[in-house]
Design goal:
Elements lengths: L3 E6 L2 E10 L6 H17 L2 H7 L6 E8 L2 E8 L10 E5 L2 E10 L2 H19 L3 E2 L5 E7 L5 E8 L1 E2 L1
Antiparallel strand pairs: 1-6, 2-4, 2-5, 3-4, 3-8, 6-9, 7-10, 8-9
């Protein structure tokens, strides 16, 4: 079973660049292709570098959220600064979260790995808490050995 914990987390906000995912939420291959294309685009056009330049730390967040009746996907950082290309500030409330740990060879694969582990396994095995919506995010950080550590944050409520 994937390594996870349930812990109380303080509120936090992150600033993100986003895209609307057009694939149906059950079309995992379609959503994966859209996310990958978006990730490649923000790296290529310089927006990722600009966003990271205003970051308060070295964590990069990959966020999934249903927002204004759209399925959104963001790349985000912790920052109190403004960024012209940012689409919105995403608020995470204080409360209990399922935290899923993982690693990957690069930031994107580390994030997608913990997202898949969380939604494809961990959440389905929990009976005392439930995810009832709201933003969820994979926080990714480069390690000194060249790998990337990821932690998935999923807000939950007690059943």
């Amino acid at each position: 079973m994937t390594n996870y914990t349930i812990a109380t987390q303080p509120a936090f906000s992150i600033l993100g660049i986003g895209t609307e995912l057009k694939s149906h939420y059950t079309d995992f291959a379609g959503m994966a292709a859209e996310k990958s294309a978006f990730w490649n685009a923000v790296q290529a056009d310089g927006r990722l570098e600009e966003l990271q330049a205003i970051a308060a730390d070295n964590k990069l967040f990959f966020v999934n959220e249903a927002y204004q009746n759209k399925m959104m996907y963001y790349v985000a950082v912790r920052s109190d600064k403004d960024f012209a290309s940012a689409d919105r500030r995403i608020e995470f409330p204080a409360g209990e979260y399922v935290l899923v740990d993982g690693t990957g060879a690069d930031a994107y694969s580390a994030a997608e790995g913990v997202i898949g582990a969380a939604f494809g396994g961990v959440l389905g095995q929990l009976s005392d808490v439930a995810y009832v919506g709201g933003p969820n995010a994979a926080a990714v950080e480069a390690q000194t050995d060249g790998t990337y550590a990821a932690k998935m944050y999923i807000p939950v409520v007690r059943n």
